[in-house]
Amino acid sequence: MKAKLREDRQEAVGPNDVWAMDFVYDQLDLGKKLRILTVVDTHARLCRTADPRFSYRGEDVVQTLERVCGKIGYPRTIRIDNGSEFISRDLDLWAYTNDATLDVSRPG
């Protein structure tokens, strides 16, 4: 996996240069938890996808990325936290295959 150090971060210089990816959570009235994968282009300030599911695994993240990238192209870097859905061989292989860097650093 290609990874970047936090001190080495550069600002996005164009569309698809740097994306930020994270989950938002909510709970339905019946008690079932909903997870929404959000992917934002940090340069264009556009949400590339907000994909809701009741369950998310690493392979589901890759499936969502493939769907989005098939329409608008692949990012150079994706900033993520170290959530369990992002720590997967599927995502590592996807990033390596598509020449994308996963920036897994966290502030603090």
From TrEMBL:
Record-level Gene Ontology MF annotations: nucleic acid binding
Coiled coil feature spans: none
GO biological process: DNA integration
Ranges of residues in domain Integrase catalytic: 11-108
Alphabetical list of InterPro entries matching this protein: Integrase_cat-core (IPR001584), RNaseH-like_sf (IPR012337), RNaseH_sf (IPR036397)
Xref: SUPFAM superfamilies: Ribonuclease H-like
Protein name: Putative transposase
